[in-house]
Amino acid sequence: MDWLTYLVLPLIKIAIAIGSLLLGVMMMVLAERRVSAWLQDRHGPNRVGWHGMMQPMADGLKFIFKEDLIPGHVDKPIYLLAPLVILVPALMTWAVVPFGTTDPTQVPTLFGQPFKFQLSDLNIGILYILAITSLGVYGVVLGAWASNNKYSLLGGLRAAAQMISYELSLGLSLIGVLMISGSLKFSVIVAQQTDIWDWNIFRQFPAFLVFTIASFAETNRAPFDLAEAEQELVGGYHTEYSSLKFAIFFMAEYLHMIVGSAVNVSLFLGGWHLFGIENIHWAFSILIFCAKVTLFLFFYIWVRWTLPRFRYDQLMMLGWKVLLPIALINIVGTAIILAF
Amino acid sequence: MTTEDMVKTSARSKTEDMLNEYIPILILTITAALFAAINLVLSHLLGPRKSSRSKLSVYESGMKPRGDARHRFSIKFYLIAMVFIIFDIEVVFLYPWALIFRQYVAAGPFILIEMLVFIGILVLGYIYVWKKGGLTWD
Fold first, then answer.
1. ipTM score for this prediction
2. Do A91 and B35 touch (CB under 8 A)?
């Protein structure tokens, strides 16, 4: 076994990716506040650093030096385990997503080895994503139950029911994409979308719609943020968490959003390809990918500050009675079109 | 080395290549767990500690807490979970089919009809749950 390929290069990639993900979370938190302010005709935080750029740093420092309170009524081991269980899957999902070119002729070499911009090209890439993201439910439920608080319990139950309901539509919507690609490998799916008209958003529009709506619900994001509807449930499942433990829940939510956008971009919006340009320089491929993800994240923020929150029965109805049939019809339709 | 040995070695190295793809993921898991653990310990070490009785009590919007949260909750949540498990298994069965669909459909429509029957049974169950009111939340 080659320790360079399997230890050093992955470690470099992990360092780069986790670093940029955390930076992305910070920028996303700031962007959320600035964009919401812009949409509501206010200024938003603009005092710390250039245009408020250091605001997330200040917030992070504040979280670190806050009292680490463990309330007396909680189930201590599970209470402490829950943030861990929620953050680890959030940090693991990106592993199979190519964040730049993976073409062996284009990638740069490092220590004489090709440096592909993807941690691991598993042959079960999509299944890996689905498996790891559904682990996030455990963190929510464990945290909610261990908190021994009525708000937490309600929030946790709601979140769990919502996440499992939308996971079905999420899984079903991807089957249409798989039928076209014939592979679960991300590198193959992205490579098939070189030309803009081959992007899966055009070939599989219903699937894209269902996947996007379901991923909003999976991330507990407005208009589906009933699990932490602050007007009725205070903080939902993280009501009893303080200091960095609360920050972990917060961070995990934004990480899910960023990685969800990255997955969406890779599966439906052509990944690091742009307008069918072949032999793209590796630096540009990363830039294109980041630009697409950023645009998609802006869409997340835009939706949150535009649409009002769903009612819980409406939310369940949308998942089970609207998205699920659309996804099923999409599968049958795709199968018939491909067959004839 | 005989030919047989060479075939064996190449087969083993192929499986090994496939399994080696998981090594970076193992490293990532360890890194992520370490990062989360460091975060948990950091605030424990650096934060001030000044607890009081009201701080340690349950947060119920400033009211005096009444009982704990170990209550019964709506049966609806169980129902949704059960329906989810059944449907999720069906979804898992669809994945291998979707992967080989394009290769096999050229040979004849058997694979299509097979799966239409499967989805038909799934839809029957779906309609049954819908009619029984299992998907209605009130």
1. 0.84
2. yes
